[in-house]
Amino acid sequence: MLSRLTRPQTLAVCALPVVALLATAALAPLPFSVAQPGLTADVLGENRGEPVITIKGAPTHGTSGQLRMTTIEATGPDASVHLGDVIGGWFDTDRAVMPRDAVYPSGDDVQEIEQYNEEQMRESQDTATTAALDHLNLDPADIDVDLRLEDVGGPSAGLLFSLGIIDKLRAGDLTGGKVVAGTGTITTGGKVGPVGGVPLKTQAARRDGATVFLVPKAECSDAQAELPKGLRLIPVTTLDGAVDALEALRTGKGEVPAC
Questions:
Q1: What is the mean pLDDT of the chain?
Q2: What's the whole-model pTM score?
């Protein structure tokens, strides 16, 4: 014989599976990474006691400002990210929730990902060198450029590497003594490409003293969304354009692009 349930009892019984489902969802790992502003490094200076850029075969010039490449730090591919982390990331301007595949496109194996990121960095450095020497009309066969930056992977420092090489090889100070930061991939032909995590990178840049940030033009709206106070955005699409913009900013002559 079945007993009769009152309405409150019925609701309570029905709620049990819902509560269990919510509890399971809250504890289940999700395919996301939580990212935050990472380190920045002055490509015109040193990293771990060694120059980031070393050039042989051509005279170099001193610089007074900084060119800071920017990074993000994200939870590892094997880390568990839960519903609470995702919700918290949505409301915290110092963190961002990103699809894990967007952060780690090469898979879930930590060793493979590290190797992939190192390869991307090496390719980016080679490409940045080619683009910079081409901009200066210098023969790469005559000049040896060595780029060193520990514990950083991926291709997003390409633009800043190119600018650093140019600043060291040509007369005049490209930054005008300012702390300039930025991000962007670079091709051998000098085209600047978009990257991820720009709002977090602008926060890292401002935290470390930058007042100017070079951003791939396609990501202007992302950069503007949570732009820190005191940081000026300059959109770029090419290496030549980035150099021209910094020259205009330094001299006060010509147009400085804006988002």
A1: 84
A2: 0.81
- The DSSP output letter for 189 is T
CATH class of domain segment(s) 36-73+110-251: alpha beta
Domain ranges in the chain are 36-73+110-251
Give burial (CB, 10 Å; 0-12/13-18/19+) of 225. exposed
Note the Cα 154 to chain centre separation in Å.
9
Question: Mean per-residue pLDDT for 76-95?
Answer: 63
Confidence grade of residue 88 (pLDDT, cut at 50, 70, 90): low
Structure tokens of 145? 């450029």
Residues 6+ apart with CB under 8 A from 90: 97
Q: Is 189 left (phi over 0), alpha (psi -120 to 50) or beta?
A: alpha
CB atoms under 10 Å from CB of 59, counted, come to 8
Q: How far apart are CA 250 and CA 123, in angstroms?
A: 31
Answer whether residue 176 shows pLDDT above 60. yes
Phi, psi of 154 (to 5 degrees): 95, 170
- φ and ψ of 215, to 5 deg: -125, 140
The β-bridge relationship of strands 212-216 and 179-182 is parallel
